[in-house]
Amino acid sequence: MSQPESFQSAPYGAPSSVGSLGGAAVGESRMPWAKAVVVTVVVFLVAGVVAGWAWQQFSPLAQYTVDDRGGELGEEQMTRIFGPDGTFTAIGFVVAVVLGGALFWWLRNHGPWSVAIVALGACLGSGVSWGVGMLLGHDPLDPRLRAAHVGDLVNAPLELHTWTPLVSWLVGAALICAVIAAATWRAEPVATTSQPGASEPAPPVH
What we know:
The chain is mostly helical. It is built from seven helices and three strands; from the N terminus they run ααββααααβα. Strands 2-1-3 form a three-stranded antiparallel β-sheet, with helices on one face. Helix 4 packs parallel to helix 7 and helix 5 runs antiparallel to helix 7.
């Protein structure tokens, strides 16, 4: 006596919710590209404004001593001339690591393109941070020296003496993306065997 056909085919016809190679489910929705880009841009834009303000507030500035010839930097003040460069690098690297890691984890379903989105956002944040800091704290030195009296101390202008600190944002974001990608790649399950009986039809039952 043959059994009902529906009973035989049920175990083999059931849809699988797991994609190939242990990937996400077929029906899993992906975040729209427009939303991913807009959110990343807004986050790094706000971060750049805040980082630029912090750079202007906390950068150690060298001080010129006003004399008859204009202004002079002492030996101690010469060591502080690159203070804004170091402060910008430190702030940018830390902010890029924190935000880059959070955004990369949030956008990880986009695959390698999530790295590009985060990297572009980091570049935007770096530029905005520099622009805001220069807008708030870059006062030309010569007019202030001319207006000062002999013996006064005049702060050096807030500025970057090299473009290298601007790369700190990109380096921080790229580094944390690489670390997270390596860690999650090792943790993702990979299917190595097929389901039993899935590749061969069931023998007929008489």
